[in-house]
Write the structure tokens for this entry.
Amino acid sequence: MYPVTQSREQLQHEQRIVGVGAGAAGFGSYERGGGADLATTDMVLNIGPQHPATHGVLRLKLTLDGERIVDCEPIIGYMHRGVEKLFEVRDYRQIIVLANRHDWLSAFSSELGVVLAVERMLGMEVPIRAVWTRTLLAELNRVLNHLMFLGSYPLEVGAITPIFYAFRERETIQQVMEEISGGRMHYMFNRVGGLKEDLPAGWLDRAVAAVAAVRSRLPQIEELIFGNEIFLARTRGVGMLSPELIESYGVSGPIARGSGVDFDLRRDEPYLAYDELATAGVLRVVTGQAGDCYARFRVLLDQARVSLDLADACIERLRSLPRGPINVRLPKILKAPEGATYCWTENPLGINGYYLVSRGEKTPWRMKLRTASYSNVQALSTLLPGTLVPDLIAILGSMFFVVGDIDK
């Protein structure tokens, strides 16, 4: 039997133990006295690195005043693998396998940036079939990345059904990606000078069918999520990210475009076949204006549609190309000339940069990575203060990052 009444001393003692004095959610400071004006003290709360409400092993050190966040310090490095140092002891063929594991949701795009940097250093021209095939696979990989967040983000704010729809679409595209590369996540299909091998017979037809199937079913995800009043209440007007803050922290990708920052390397500094796709009007840069969680999520969905259109355009271009080589024949020992170069790409989560320094050896002297997730997460230290703890997970999920892409 529980006691019907409690003394003030008993109540305060229990509140100190469970930490519920300032809010029903269990966060905040406890009572220190009676009366109308309750004296409180700030509470330091660690979210992560193993908390189920975080993405992987990111740790957020929060200072709370009741349920309001007054300070946030993102603490990273729990997955640090020293990949930049590992680049220095592997040759230019071997570093690709390290790059594609950095952001495991964007494996093809990550390995693509490395080979583009090496090819630029070598002054190498890649066969046209490889250029268009790379563009096609990069856009299919972008759709896979976005579908993951389109399914997982609603899960974090309380909706479980969308993730089943999203994974159905992911599996449709995964089948054609696995067929061409042999891998489901770590494709290892890029090579310095092109791609591993040519397309399997009939693969383009199966890719067309996969793209059409996903495009036809995307409205189901849209209706399920964007028509939900609970989802709208949790995301609209929450986590406002200003263009000034984006510029200060170097935020990029769908997060930046959700705040109206109209910048996309595929259009503004084109590489691969994006220049021709932009001229043809197929490449469209999707932006939002509100800068809240809802706008960022909306951009993600609309950008997935654009990537499907780009994939169709690449397939049609590949059909029209004559048979030819898919890569450049390389020497047994590949050495980059002495010098340095910087290559950047529009990865699914934002801008990735690769600064390559060579001293004429078969291994890089230095390979510095600029990853999208690293810069995007840093903005949390300014974005979260002033918000409420119940909005923390909604904001955190809308930043669309992969922890492996943060911890270099």
Remarks:
- Confidence is low (pLDDT under 50) at residues 1-35.
